[in-house]
Amino acid sequence: MxxxxxxxxxxxxxxxxxxxxxxxxxxxxxxxxxxxxxxFELHKFFLEKExxxxxxxxxxxxxxxxxxxxxxxxxLKAMGILK
Length: 83
Ligand SMILES: [Zn+2]
What we know:
Elements: E1 9-12, E2 15-18, H1 22-33, H2 38-62, H3 65-78
Antiparallel strand pairs: 1-2
Helix pairs in contact: 2-3
Bound molecules: zinc ion.
């Protein structure tokens, strides 16, 4: 799975905080989360987007319903996770 930066900037403390790496974003975001309640909404959106991306990833990879179960089981067996 690709590790893309979903948000590169956000507004807090009367300015735009620019981040160049994901680590920088996480650390800056955590700091400014204490200052700005609206960042909680962005944080929620950020997490929901990440979960949706993950959902899509698995759907694309394994399909849906019974097909998903069958393909996921096959994959986990191949990985040695499931016996
Ligand atoms: Zn701030």
